[in-house]
């Protein structure tokens, strides 16, 4: 039986706003002058460079404190932290491998110990290896791809849940390859497809708790991972096949995460945003 949310009422078409019970709210959200995420605490994986770094910096600019982890690039990670501190925000930086469950638990434990709360979880860390055929993908590589790209999302979200309250936001990074496939990143595309199903399923599961779960599916974005994966010719042409005829930059993707983290998206859950240079994809 459908629950009644408002008094019974009827008007002649097209109706008067002043007669609605309750009122239809149309005024823009008012934010603190300090930003959209003032004093929120955000966990972001893989924020030493690329999309994760751009998200961390934009969140900090909008008032959030940041806890982030990275795999190995300490110089880049220190730069991320320095820039966050320059925005006047607090920052917790951890070097750890999220493909290991105990490290995901450590990320949550240390974030809570330092900040005392978690408001936003951005699962973003990702790795891929180019393979010309399915036969070239070893079980070891398949395990590594899924443990880093999918298991870490599962573990970090699971360990965060006891600390997430009404209004919290979980944002998962998937990929355009999950929608159109990839003949040379088969295991990577499969892991990103799993993230879409995880996002949609978890959004339904957490709806009663008023915790929103969404995702972002970037297209070709110019990051260190791209330059370290492909050959020179591929990198020189990277993104040119998109309708906008170029690769995107991380700062062009970060606003999608800000939208999903803030109250601007308070009525959105279980959805995927597509900053991909104009490519139309199903879903």
Question: Could you list some keywords that capture this structure?
Answer:
9 helices; oxidoreductase activity, acting on CH-OH group of donors; Sc_DH/Rdtase_CS; SDR_fam; 283 residues; 7 strands; Rossmann fold; oxidoreductase; seven-stranded parallel β-sheet; alpha/beta; single chain; NAD(P)-bd_dom_sf
Report the CATH architecture: 3-Layer(aba) Sandwich
In the CATH hierarchy, the third-tier topology is known as Rossmann fold
The major beta sheet can be summarized as:
7 strands, parallel
* Overall CATH class: Alpha Beta
Overall pLDDT? 93
Rounded to an integer in angstroms, the radius of gyration calculated over CA atoms is 20 Å
Placed side by side, the strands forming the largest sheet appear as: 3-2-1-4-5-6-7
Question: What string, H for helix and E for strand, traces the elements in order?
Answer: EHEHEHEHEHHEHHHE
Number of helices: 9
Work out the count of structural domains: 1
Cα distance spanning the termini? 30 Å
Number of DSSP strands?
A: 7
Stretches with pLDDT under 50, minimum 5 residues? none
Beta percentage is 5-15%
């Amino acid at each position: 039986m459908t629950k009644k949310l408002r008094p019974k009422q009827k008007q002649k078409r097209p109706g008067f706003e002043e007669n609605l019970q309750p009122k239809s709210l149309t005024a823009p959200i008012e934010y603190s002058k300090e930003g959209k995420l003032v004093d929120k605490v955000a966990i972001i994986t893989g924020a030493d460079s690329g999309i994760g770094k751009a998200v961390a910096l934009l969140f900090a600019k909008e008032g959030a404190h940041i806890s982030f982890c990275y795999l190995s690039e300490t110089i880049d990670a220190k730069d991320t932290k320095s820039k966050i501190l320059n925005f006047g925000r607090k920052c917790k930086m951890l070097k750890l491998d999220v493909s290991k469950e105990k490290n995901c638990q450590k990320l949550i434990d240390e974030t809570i110990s330092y900040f005392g709360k978690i408001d936003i979880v951005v699962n973003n860390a990702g790795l891929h290896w180019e393979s010309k055929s399915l036969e070239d993908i070893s079980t070891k590589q398949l395990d590594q791809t899924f443990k880093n790209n999918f298991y870490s999302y599962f573990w970090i979200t699971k360990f965060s849940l006891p600390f997430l309250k009404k209004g919290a936001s979980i944002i998962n990074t998937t990929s355009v390859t999950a929608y159109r496939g990839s003949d040379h990143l088969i295991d990577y595309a499969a892991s990103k497809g799993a993230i879409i199903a995880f996002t949609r399923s978890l959004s339904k599961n957490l709806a009663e708790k008023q915790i929103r779960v969404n995702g972002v599916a970037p297209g070709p974005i110019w990051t260190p991972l791209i330059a370290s994966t492909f050959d020179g010719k591929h990198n020189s042409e990277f993104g040119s096949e998109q309708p906008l005829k170029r690769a995107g930059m991380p700062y062009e993707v970060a606003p999608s995460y800000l939208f999903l983290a803030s109250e601007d998206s308070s009525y959105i859950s279980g959805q995927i945003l597509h900053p991909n240079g104009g490519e139309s994809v199903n879903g």
